[in-house]
Amino acid sequence: MDESGGPLDESPSVMYRQGALRFGDLWTASPRMMLCVQTAQSIARLEMDVVILGETGTGKNLLAQAIHNASPRRAGPFLEFNTASIPRALAENELFGHEVGAYTGAERQHPGLFEQANGGTLFLDEIGNMPPELQAKILTSVERKKVRRLGGREETECDVRLLCATNTDVEEAMATGALRKDLYYRLGRCVLHVPSLRERQEDIPLLAERFVALDNASYNRTVERIAPACMLRLLEYPWPGNVRELRAKISFAVAICEGTELLPVHVFPETAARPVAGSGCPAPGGAAAGDDVSLASVERRHIAKVLAMTGWNIAQSSRLLGITRPTLRDKIARYGLRKPGEAVPRAGERRG
Asked: What beta strand segments (E) does the chain contain?
């Protein structure tokens, strides 16, 4: 929620209350997901490390937060680290810290995440993509409950509960040596499998409707329902990005819908050839029969509409479009889009 305790915050999977996610905040109507959540609730109170398996975008990090907040460690810190996001040397420094002079530029002592999470929970995401040498060091720290900073001689005790997640096939990863068997078996005393959105289709209408309600408030829209044809498309779509992808598509669809009903053209504009007559919701960008409906033309109209809606706020527009800010700026230049009142560049003149 916001600082005033208002609406629920956004997440890449389900919605959660910022800083205080509980199991009750995980929205699901799926028996498979309910079983996963119930199992997580049962082990949350135990001093047991956990491995969470599932595809990208299924909400593994949210489940980890809920476990921490239902555990005896809930008053302690919850720290999250994506082990595949940075090179090994930097990851080792982040996890274990360093002493002064450990390497060039190490002018101050730095406690790592293991020390910072003392008394709480450390969530390591994408552990299957971590270098095996670093996995070995983590295993040693978990078993000894001690860490040694880079460049240090003494070990520091750390009382940390470790939650790990991966979207890789663990059996294949262990067979190829990408994932150390000893680490997995040490951490995997409890393994939670988060089903993909394809495996819990019951959640698609539930999540889509709740996302619509949240985005109505965020973007000052009045969408009242999802059209049956649109819901059918949602149920048929394979969702390779899982709930994260559903969240992004609904957010964009609500943002560009100017009527009260969400149509397929809003959620899946890349497949739309013409607006739906009498819908009250024109096709994104104002496309009409006979207009250029090439992918580039449709994308140009979409980007122009989102930029206009946000007052050319690049950060907000890129978030709505699901692309990075540099990518958005490149597309603005490629399509020759300009702010209202902005002069047309002269031939040979570079734009600022």
From this structure: 50-53, 78-82, 97-98, 110-111, 121-125, 146-147, 156-157, 161-166, 191-193, 225-226, 261-262
